[in-house]
Amino acid sequence: MCDIYNNFAYVYDKLTIDIDYKKWADYIENILSKHKVKATMILELGCGTGSFGIEMARRGYEMICLDLSTEMLDCASEKAKKDELDILFLNQDMCNFELYGTVDVIVCLLDSFNYLTKPSQIKNLFKLVHNYLNPGGLFIFDINTQYKFEKTLSNNLFYEIDDDITYIWENDYNPKTKKARFDLTFFVKQDELYQRFDETHFEKAYSNVEIMEFIKTSDLEFITVYDELKFKKPSLTNQRSFYVCKKKVIDILKF
């Protein structure tokens, strides 16, 4: 993955204002409770501007937040300092990261997983997750579903006009490769003028069968998959799925 965010980091929070991070944190905590996992330290992969990690830190968790974008991490660090929160931010690739110890839970949220467009990236991610999870720990990640790519994102054009920020988001989805290209153009107000900058993002759609195959070939144990922010089986038309995997306790005895 490359550093795709750049200037986008500084307008990201305004563009994701509709995301209820408290609700997301509640949901993750409920998953932990439902599967009887007591967590002290949590690693977030692809943390962006740190909103989720900050919410979890407010709740008393020791957070390690990792992202490839230095700009995203600068924003996250500034926000954490304002709240006087002690969060470890790491500028690393989630497909090639290194920690100095293990954690109780690893999360990868807000379709960060879809940014992995090569099988080798996903296989390496699972390998590292297994390596840095404590026995019995959970790996929780979500994906934009194939249905969402085909029926909602597809080749559509989205836009929003505001006094401070205007954006145009044009999608190009290839159903054969299942890859989507997102071309974004932003106009951000600075004093009396507007600055334009452009971003290009890439995501890939994965079917449930493909995700299950990746999990099957990893050393992690598949626990369940949920519909978006719910505790029920995903429907055929759901937009986002949450996967829960576990590091087997018996793994500690392999040595």
**How much of the sequence is in beta strands?**
25-35%
Helix content: 25-40%
Shape verdict: globular
Q: In CATH terms, what is the architecture of the largest domain?
A: 3-Layer(aba) Sandwich
Order of helices and strands: HHEHEHEEHEHEEEEHEE
Number of helices: 7
Round the Cα radius of gyration to an integer and report it. 18 Å
Quick one: biggest sheet? 7 strands, mixed
User: What structural class do you assign from the helix and strand content?
Assistant: alpha/beta
Mean pLDDT: 91
Poorly predicted ranges (pLDDT <50, ≥5 residues)? 1-6
First and last CA, distance = 34 Å
Detail the topology: elements first, then pairings.
Blueprint: H1 9-15, H2 21-34, E1 41-45, H3 51-58, E2 62-67, H4 70-82, E3 88-91, E4 103-108, H5 119-132, E5 133-144, H6 146-153, E6 157-161, E7 165-174, E8 179-190, E9 193-204, H7 208-217, E10 221-227, E11 240-246
Parallel strand pairs: 1-2, 1-4, 2-3, 4-5
Antiparallel strand pairs: 5-11, 6-7, 7-8, 8-9, 10-11
Any overview of this molecule?
The protein has 255 residues and is an alpha/beta fold. The protein has two domains: 6-145 and 206-253, 3-Layer(aba) Sandwich (Rossmann fold); 148-204, S-adenosyl-L-methionine-dependent methyltransferases (N-terminal domain of TfIIb), CATH 2.20.25.110. It has helices spanning 9-15, 21-34, 51-58, 70-82, 119-132, 146-153, 208-217; strands at 41-45, 62-67, 88-91, 103-108, 133-144, 157-161, 165-174, 179-190, 193-204, 221-227, 240-246. It has a seven-stranded mixed β-sheet with strand order 3-2-1-4-5-11-10, sandwiched between helices. Strands 6-7-8-9 form a four-stranded antiparallel β-sheet. Strand 2, helix 4 and strand 3 (88-91) form a beta-alpha-beta unit. The chain is globular, with a radius of gyration of 18 Å. The two termini are 34 Å apart.
